[in-house]
Each structure stands twice: as C-alpha cells, then as structure tokens.
Amino acid sequence: MAKEQMLQFVDVQKEMPQKRPPDLRAKDFHEIYAEYADEKAKVQASRCSQCGVPYCQSHCPLHNNIPDWLRLTAEGRLQEAYEISQATNTFPEICGRICPQDRLCEGNCVIEQSGHGTVTIGAVEKYITDTAWEKGWVKPAVPSRERGESVGIIGAGPGGLAAADALRRKGVQVTVYDRYDRAGGLLTYGIPGFKLEKDVVMRRIEQLEQSGVEFVLNCTVGEDISFDAIRGKHDAVLIATGVYKTRDLQGPGSGAEGIVRAIDYLTASNRVSFGDEVPEYDSGELCATGKRVVVVGGGDTAMDCVRTAIRQGATSVKCLYRRDKANMPGSQREVQNAEEEGVEFVWLSAPKGFTGDRVDSVLVQKMRLGVPDASGRQSPEVIEGADYAEPADLVIKALGFEPEDLPTLWGEPALEVTRWGTVKSDFRSHETSLPGVFAVGDIVRGASLVVWAIRDGREAADSILAYLAQPAQVAAE
Prior knowledge:
Layout: H1 22-25, H2 38-45, H3 55-58, H4 66-74, H5 78-88, H6 92-98, H7 110-113, H8 121-135, E1 150-154, H9 158-169, E2 173-177, H10 186-189, H11 198-210, E3 214-216, H12 227-233, E4 236-239, E5 245-246, E6 259-261, H13 262-274, H14 279-282, E7 292-296, H15 300-311, E8 316-321, H16 332-340, E9 344-347, E10 349-355, E11 361-372, E12 378-382, E13 388-391, E14 394-397, E15 401-402, H17 406-409, E16 437-439, H18 442-445, H19 450-476
Parallel strand pairs: 1-2, 1-4, 2-3, 4-16, 6-14, 7-8, 7-14, 8-9
Antiparallel strand pairs: 5-15, 10-11, 11-12, 11-13
Helix pairs in contact: 2-4, 4-5, 4-8, 5-8, 6-8, 9-19, 13-15, 15-16
C-alpha cells in the first residue's frame, strides 16, 4: 500500500468497535466493546496521517511505534504489526483495553487536533494482539542460553511481570513473590472484567510460567519470608509491590459499618468472577445488590466501583467528586460509559460525615472551585449552608492509594523512602539506596498507570542486566 493510501481521515470517519447497549452490558462483567472485523481494522488504521512528528508515539510512556503498526495493519501485514507492537510493549492487548488513550496517544493525535476525530489506536492495538494470540504468533520467551544469575521480584503486577519477561528473554532465572493467590496484581483483582476480562491476564501469566518464571504466591514479604532472605537468595531484587494503602475518609461516622475500601470491594467482585467463595460478598458486606450506593472519588478506581455496583444490581449508584467534570482525574470515556449505564455523578460535592451505626446516609457538602493550587488546578471551597443528606446503604472509599511503610514492614530501615513514603530510586537506573535492589511502578511513582509500570519494569530489567554484568567485568579487569 503506497503512502497516499493512508491519510484516509478526510474521507473515512472515526469509528470505534461496536459497543454493547447499556441495558445489556450492565447485566454482566464481559467487556463492552466488540472486536474489530479485519476489514474495519484496516480501514480505521488507514486514517493515520503518518505525520512527520508522531505525537501519539511521543505521548505514549512506552513510545510505541504506533504509526508503523497502523500502516502495517492497513496493509494487512498483521504479524509484522504485532511484532513491532510487542517490541516496545510487553502486554499490548492489556494496554489496548485499559490505557486512557484519550489522555495519551489518541488525545495527542494530529488529526484529532485538526478536528477529524482521532485514529482509534487502542482498539487497533487490541485487535492486533488478540489476532496474534488467535493465530499462535505469541510465543513464550525461549532464551538462546540460560544464565546462572537469579533475580527476585516482589510483586506480580504489571511492573514486576514486565521485568520478569525481559529478564527471562536474556536467560536470567526469575522468581516472583506475591501476596495474592493469583499473579497479576491489580490487573487480576483490581480492574473489573468489563474493562479487562481475566482470561486475557491469565494467559499472559501462563505464558510467563512456560518461559520459566517461577511464581511464589500467597507469600507476604515480612511475614512468610523476610526481605533479607530474598536478598540472600538472589543476585538482584526488584521491588514492584504497588500501593495498596487506602486514603481514608474523615468526618463524624466515618468508621460506621457499610463504609468499605474500593480495593476490598473490587477484589471481592473479581474473586466471585473466578468462582471463588467470598463470604464478605455472600453476606452483603461487599456486594451492592439492592443497595443505595455512594462512591467517593473521581479517578479510574471510582469509575470501576460505580460500574461494578450497577452490574451487581444496586438500587441507585451516585458518585461524589469535589471538583467538576472537566477537572476529574478519571478517563472521560469511562465517565461516559458509566453515565450510559445509569450512574449519577454529583459534581462539586464531598462527604462531611455519615449517620447510623450502619451507614444510612452521607452528609454532603457542596463545593465551588476557587483559586488554583500549587499544581495549577482550582481548589474546591465549601459553600456554607448548602449541606444535605444523601441516603446510602453502602459507601465505597475510592480516594486513591498510598504506599505501605516498607522499611518498617520489612525490617529494612536502610531502604530509603521519600517524604510521601514511596521508595526512593534513581529515575534512570531504578536502583534504590540498597545495592542490587531496584524499584519500579506505583511504589516509586505513587498511584499511576499500568503503562508507566510496564515501562519502568522494562527499563529496570536493562539496569539489572547491567548490574549483573559488573562482577564479571571486575573479574576480567
């Protein structure tokens, strides 16, 4: 296909894969978007302008070669498109599903800026890799030679898994330790199936196992095994624990029954989807069926909670956020999906307190946006005398996550942390204050995106390989 057969954005309109109707998709946890048909993927990929400065690529944390694999898709050269996509992204089918493309690649697409509607990059990325799995092009890593060095990775989320994949491809022996009974971290237990069906994650875990990665699950560092023991067992260690400590609600009644953490609520729902027995779900403690649900927060976790509550059969679902729609941190695409499914957003609102030993209402205070804060965002201010009571049977705290106190939990005071409690590491090498110990993902960045964790994990793998090579270089000298 000649270059002029690209640039079809003037004649061809943007068209996402078909989205299931809200009344149908709100009854199950299956993904809401259908797959592109082959011809539709080619046509949508052909809309790419192949611009000289690909802003989509520069605004992707992984700097994926997006124009190249769009062109190859338009030409029907899907296996080559997959190989280029996989070259920079360990899990393209996952990023294609859950990345906030509207804030990253698609939001910076040149033809989007010119008013023609962005190229549907995420949907094409998903299509390419799903086709690769179907055709058998996705293979476990088989290193050309095995190496004797071993690396211990603490945390089986996207950062740890990306590093594990990269290290195994170089023949390093890799052991991943995780507190949960399944690997994947928030990919498995945090993100609902309607955004990321769990077989998509599990087949990647299986592929890593086939490549020789060892998983030690149900293993909490500091309890089941010491951090010192892991360091003693391996030539290098990577910390990729993520952040799981929930920011708390304040105000009278905040300790009432029926006020739960988002991570507990989402984990229970995802466990049920695996067929696990979950007593807290069966008892109603972590289930929204028949309840008036209020979710507090405006990020992607809050979106996951409100849309899960709809699917569980809540009587009503309301989301309180202290700023307006334009200033919320969550994906606008997710807000639209939630509104279509029946979620009511109560903008410029925040909880002041709660009533009932078992919560029966949220005392809501109305806000307005005042002067910008240090970050440049307008700060919410309380409107005096505008409080009201919002009936609620279940309140879900989705205010974000903070790091656990790893130096204390692991008995390692020499592990330096920042004033925010995140692990301090070199932004280039990802090495911490401890020799041979590296850290990536949310435990360094604070709560962030899956794609950033993947990038960190891949970069850290390169640094670990360089670190492992140092003793041999010293001996040679």
